[in-house]
Amino acid sequence: MVKKDWRAEQFRCLVALGESTTAGGWSTSPERCWVAVLGALINDFQERPVRVVNSGIGANVISTRSPSYDASGKPAAAERLEKHVLAHDPDLLIISYGLNDARGGTPLPQFREDLALLVQRVREHGDPLIVLPGPYFMTDFTVGGRDWIHADLPLFKSFNTATAELAAELGCLHVDLLEASGEAPWTVHHDGVHQNDLGHRLVANRIFEVLAQSCSCLARKTREAERHSPRWRDESTLQSDYGH
Questions:
Q1: Distance of CA 44 to the CA centre of its chain
Q2: Is the pLDDT of residue 244 over 60?
Q3: Which of 144, 197, 204, 242 has its CA 20 to 30 A from that of 54?
Q4: Which residues pair with 96 in a beta bridge?
């Protein structure tokens, strides 16, 4: 079986569309948000830097149909797709939703429909590589007021599974962020909802891992370098200790 190469050309523009953790909450600096860290990881393996656009909004939901829309950070993803995504003409798009919709009572079939519609609308205007992460790991499902207390970890896992199935159907990449966290509570901010700096690093690393396994463009720079880089290891002293 031949390995599918999802992208051979280097990335030009990364847009991350999502909720508060995408926006940066609560990393200790903008540079420690997973979006920025992911951009830096990509740039380390490209000759040219990728332009990074963070389109995260706190308390955001996927569409106006979400039961918690009135209490949410507006506009919803479906309302802002043209201005916050399409206007940037991305060739790498990460659509990171599920956490707030699960917490806000959005029925899973409805969420799946709205996420599929977002992907469809994007592809009417271009053909970026689309990545669909599942929900982040969080530890306190009682915070945020009555509009945001409708989820638990099993429901998050159901949203994650549905996102993975949809990604397979629509030709998108899926990233399992629950698995990436190892459900370690020390990767979550003390508010119980957002990722801390360590959690942001895990998110960025896992998304990059999926991209690296799927996109040959991220190997171009290092494969060229390996043709010319000098050998830097010197094991002679260690070998001489054993008489070799």
A1: 18
A2: no
A3: 144
A4: 18
